[in-house]
Write a structure and sequence with these properties.
The complex is a heterodimer of chains A (313) and B (252). Chain A is α/β, with parallel strands linked by helices. Helix content of chain A is 30%, strand content 21%. Chain A has two domains: 2-36, no CATH class; 42-303, 4-Layer Sandwich (Purple Acid Phosphatase, chain A, domain 2), CATH 3.60.21.10. The radius of gyration of chain A is 23 Å and the shape is globular. With 252 residues, chain B is α+β, with helices and mostly antiparallel strands. Classes of the chains: A alpha/beta (313), B alpha+beta (252).
């Protein structure tokens, strides 16, 4: 587009108004246009990798662990993520919260090592889980200098806390020309976290906030993909808001990456949203035993089948 | 129409065209990848972790006391040596702090059976032992409740027939599991008196259906983790000698 503007400026300056030349200019502009949109026929692929509830599980479980022998571990996860990034550089790595608490690494270092390692693995963004308040909101704040990635939460209002301005509601990434909007959601803290730990953090209604977020990301910011990074929990036998309930009650969310309930899903769940369109909900258990991978393929309009987006999970 | 206008018009047309013919989502694939030992360790990351790991291991492995035998939470029906030890430690470690802060003594302690997460093996007691016994971050709180709520607490324990760790409370049931007597500091529980009951924050919030802590006259948070009560106690003593006693017994 800047080339076009330059061309217009040059033409204006030269007062280039011969009829024949104008025709040539139009053709060349047309050509330019086609050139700049020539990528529309190539497909684009965005890979989303995600973890949740890693709970300070930095080392691989020992061989004698009764539940998860030889599984997990940051150094192995690093190898996996590295190989996927080599295969597709247009990859985002996200974490859905509860980074803290679960092994002595947290008790000894307060989350420092967790954040440093996530930075080394080049996490792009994370949301905040209830256990991330385990050393108080000050304990979370104190570890922020070790995180080279940002935290997002749209429904925690940190205005009167130390976290104010250190946590944004959403973040937009641009990968291969595709705009990816990611917003964060946290679980209600009352009754789950001692109030002296979360202090004056205000919990806002996730459904209402998601309606605001999708309007901003989809309509105002023109995001091609909208991802909700949630620590609400997958599903409950009560009225409590969950990822499944949120997916049903909202629109324009392509993917909800969840956490909190340590839910192991054999595959992502496809939920019909309020407009009858598909929203994917995924969660990968806990402790870094699994990494979730969702690939979004983009194509030019003409190559898209009448059935719309095909989902294979 | 001037030529420049035409150019601008064309420009806008192209912009609109560009927006409408943009790429669209066509396909989504989702899968879960297991992190197993088939994946090689990233050596840079592993070496980065190493000094942290070694420091923790060294500290966790350092011997802080000796246990003459192995204690398990299943060694007893209504009270166990291990449960008694943990509840007595909570009292011994927390009471001086509570007394200094409030001028009151803790009247009794209640923890939960499910909160004992491992046995206590014979031999070296390390900080790691305390982490295994209590991997969670729960802290001690003291709730000021009326005697009638303490009676609810007693009835809960009688009904549960489980060795929930208690200290300074004495319960006797008959062979039909009917309450015979319950005493604090040698005296029957006075329904109208205020008792200071130390417990963990999980139970205080109604965990294990222990609803008798709400409402209450006052809550005192001690900011003292259960695990740290154990570590501090083990560091203070050379060896331990807990016993099963008569704090919760069945008589014929």
């Amino acid at each position: 587009m800047t080339d076009l503007l330059k061309l217009i400026k040059i033409m204006k300056r030269r007062n280039f108004i011969q009829q024949a030349a104008a025709g040539t200019a139009l053709i060349s502009l047309g050509g330019l246009g086609l050139q700049s949109f020539s990528t529309i026929n190539n497909f684009k692929k965005i890979t989303i990798l995600h973890t949740n509830d890693v709970h300070s599980h930095i080392d691989t479980f020992p061989p004698d662990d009764p539940r998860n022998p030889n599984q997990g571990g940051v150094a192995r996860r690093a190898t996996l993520i590295d190989s996927i990034r080599k295969e597709n550089p247009n990859t985002l790595l996200l974490d859905a919260g509860d980074i803290f608490q679960g092994t002595p690494y947290f008790n000894y270092y307060g989350g420092e090592l967790e954040f440093k390692l996530m930075s080394k693995l080049k996490y792009d963004v994370a949301t905040i889980g209830n256990h991330d308040f385990d050393n108080g909101i000050e304990g979370l704040y104190a570890q922020l200098p070790h995180a080279e990635f940002e935290f997002i939460s749209a429904n925690y209002d940190f205005t009167n806390t130390v976290m104010d301005t250190h946590c944004k509601p959403y973040k937009i990434f641009k990968k291969d020309g595709i705009n990816i909007g990611v917003f964060g959601l946290g679980v209600e803290l009352k009754g789950l976290v001692t109030d002296t730990n979360y202090k004056e953090t205000k919990y806002l209604d996730p459904v209402e906030i998601s309606q605001d977020m999708t309007r901003i990301l989809k309509e105002e910011k023109g995001c091609d993909l909208v991802i909700c990074l949630s620590h609400l929990g997958y599903e409950y036998n009560s009225d409590k808001i969950s990822d499944i309930k949120l997916a049903k009650a909202t629109k324009n969310i392509d993917l909800i990456i969840g956490g909190h309930t340590h839910t192991f899903l054999s595959k992502p769940t496809v939920v019909k949203n309020i407009e009858g369109k598909n929203t994917l909900v995924n969660q990968v258990g806990c402790y870094g035993i699994n990494v979730g991978r969702i690939d979004f393929y983009f194509d030019s309009n003409k190559n898209i089948s009448a059935e719309g987006v095909s989902i294979s999970v | 129409m001037r030529f420049t206008h035409l150019i601008y018009l064309l420009f806008f047309f192209l912009l609109l065209h560009c927006k409408n013919s943009d790429v669209q989502l066509s396909k989504i694939e989702g899968k879960q990848i297991q992190v197993t030992d088939k994946l090689e360790l990233d050596s840079e990351i592993d070496q980065y972790i190493a000094p942290y790991r070694e420091h923790i291991q060294k500290d966790l492995d350092s011997i802080i006391a000796i246990s003459p035998k192995t204690y398990d939470k299943t060694d007893g029906e209504l009270n166990t040596a291990l449960g008694n030890l943990m509840a007595d430690i909570a009292y011994e470690q927390a009471n001086p702090i509570f007394l200094k802060r409030t001028g009151h003594n803790i009247d009794m302690v209640l923890l939960n059976y499910g909160g004992i997460r491992s046995n206590l093996p014979k031999g070296a007691i390390t900080k790691g032992t305390a982490f295994k016994l209590m991997p969670f971050e729960n802290s001690l709180v003291v709730a000021a409740i009326k005697g009638n709520q303490v009676n609810d607490l007693v009835n809960y324990l009688v009904k549960a027939r489980k060795a929930h760790p208690i200290s300074k409370l004495q319960i006797t049931v008959d062979k039909n599991n009917t309450l015979v007597a319950s005493k604090i500091d040698g005296a029957p529980i006075d329904a109208d008196k205020t008792y200071y009951v130390a417990t963990n924050d999980y139970l205080y919030q109604g965990g294990d259906s222990m609803t008798f802590f709400q409402p209450n006259e006052n809550l005192y948070t001690l900011d003292y983790k259960i695990r740290n009560t154990l570590i501090d106690y083990f560091m203070k003593v050379d060896s331990i000698s807990p016993v099963r006693d008569d704090r919760f017994i069945k008589i014929n």
